[in-house]
Design a protein that fits this description.
Length: 163
């Protein structure tokens, strides 16, 4: 079991660069969309794609944690929401919360947005909603990143403790 903890901790740390890149790209595209007299829609599409990618990357990590650490992966129609909710709770004798409830609220807005992106045409995106999501992500990313790194350190600690 030790190798699962180490592998997951390494995966989480490696994923941080991609998540950081998605945050940066979404913010950069949003800033350029304000200045764009032409092709503003293309910048907004980029914002939406990067917000989608950011949440999808996190959700992959959450799935790995649920599958390999919790050994319970939510199912059913609301599994995406249930998985996120599970990540903000301690699991007794298994693990601490992966993210705070504050982070969960921010991430839930991204989860809902990702669902929207998957199910509507890009022409239906609301720029004000994108602005709110980008601003929220930039504001909360440092704290969320710290929470994820702390969880990776927990996994490494457990692995060392089992050796």
């Amino acid at each position: 079991m030790t190798s699962v903890f180490v592998e997951l901790a390494e995966r989480m740390k490696a994923e941080m660069a991609d998540l950081e890149d998605a945050v940066t790209r979404a913010a950069r595209a949003w800033a350029r969309s304000d200045d764009a007299a032409v092709d503003k829609d293309i910048y907004l599409d980029s914002v939406a794609l990067n917000l989608h990618g950011f949440y999808s990357g996190l959700e992959r990590l959450f799935e790995l944690i649920a599958r390999h650490i919790d050994q319970v992966l939510p199912s059913g129609e609301t599994w995406h929401r249930d998985l996120l909710a599970r990540m903000c709770h301690d699991i007794a004798d298994v693990r601490p919360a992966v993210v705070s409830e504050k982070s969960e609220r921010q991430l839930d807005a991204l989860r809902r947005f990702r669902h929207l992106v998957r199910n509507v045409y890009a022409t239906n995106l609301v720029p004000e909603k994108l602005a709110s999501l980008v601003d929220g992500l930039r504001e909360h990313w440092p704290g969320l990143q710290a929470e994820l790194l702390a969880f990776a350190q927990f996994l490494e600690y457990v692995a060392r403790d089992e050796d």
